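Protein modeling request. Please complete all fields; requests missing the sequence field cannot be processed.
Requester role: graduate student
Desired output: 3D structure, token encoding
Chains: 1
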Amino acid sequence: METIQKHKNSFLKTILKQKQREKTNDKEIEKDVQQEKINSEIKSTAIFLALFMSAVLGRVALQFVPSVEPIIPIAILAGLLFGAKEGFSLGFFAYVVSNFFVWGLQGPWTLFQALGAGIPAAGAGLIGKVKQPTKRDFIIMSIAGTIFFEVLMNLFGSLFFYGLFLGALSLPIYFLTSLPFSIAHIAANIGFAGLFSKFLKLKNKVNEDDEIKVLSVSKHTDGSTTSVRLYKFK
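Delivered output (234 residues):
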């Protein structure tokens, strides 16, 4: 009986030590996962800010070149990389911020410019959630986004400067006279989209948080049981 009791006590001590080791391992793994998450968030924030600054500074630097500004393609790229909310935010606030530094400054047109870039970028973000975008997709989205922007701005310009009645009557003429600038804007954004398409590969890095980051395997000392822990964070 004494021998059996000794074996029983030894077994219980072994189990207790194993449980303590598992708790320690769990804490270490959780710490590693949290650190990975922080590092990933820092990296994503840095990429987003770099895109935002490129959009703002690019527009300011090119303000004296008619209809050449990179905000829409960059906002669409942000939408594809990060999602609809981030794409909209970049497109919207890039126009708001850059209008402090370009000819014309702020005005009622700022809201429509911001929406004209933010809405297509949000749409790109939704598309980016369901498919892996290609260079061709990016260029097509940039063309569609620029057309949306031009239509919105022409509607605003005609109705704002000529009033509701005369503005509605003059819409065809307004669109026709602005057509060369719209074409230049579309052509420029095709070029920007082609230039920035190489950054689409960042999508996999930005979204790597959706993957399993840590695999922990623990065994009892007798080898009879194996427990597997999968850690995943978004």
